[in-house]
Amino acid sequence: MRLSRRTSWFLAAFGVWSWIIWTTFVKNLWKDSSGQAFTGGGHAHPTAYFWIHLALAVTSFVLGTLVGLVGLRGLRAARSTPAP
């Protein structure tokens, strides 16, 4: 299967976007002071909310990386073949 340059750029940008968004989310989750992510005022007792959202973030990191790599491979393939 061949990807267009436009699609390849979109997939690569999506991978970068995913890392930016989810890194920010994890930082904010870690700093949570509302009591949703941690109980007892410190980071010693994470809640189910924390673990579920951390799992979502890790999954999104993995999927964003894979999608970004597909985009990069598409860009490399488009660069090595002459445009019609």
Outline the fold blueprint.
Blueprint: H1 5-30, E1 38-39, E2 45-46, H2 48-80
Antiparallel strand pairs: 1-2
Helix pairs in contact: 1-2
Low-pLDDT runs of 5+ residues are none
Strand order of the largest sheet: 1-2
SSE series: HEEH
* Quantity of strands, as a count: 2
Largest sheet: 2 strands, antiparallel
End-to-end Cα distance: 17 Å
Portion in helices: over 70%
Class by helix and strand content? Answer: mainly alpha
Radius of gyration: 18 Å
Q: How would you describe the shape?
A: rod-shaped
Number of helical regions: 2
Task: Report mean pLDDT, rounded to a whole number.
Answer: 91
Index terms:
84 residues; mainly alpha; two-stranded antiparallel ribbon; 2 helices; 5% strand; rod-shaped
Report on the architecture of this protein.
This protein is mainly α. It has helices spanning 5-30, 48-80, and strands at 38-39, 45-46. The chain has a two-stranded antiparallel sheet with strand order 1-2. A hairpin with a 5-residue loop joins strand 1 and strand 2. Helix 1 (5-30) packs antiparallel against helix 2 (48-80). The protein is rod-shaped, with a radius of gyration of 18 Å. The model has no long low-confidence stretch (mean pLDDT 91).
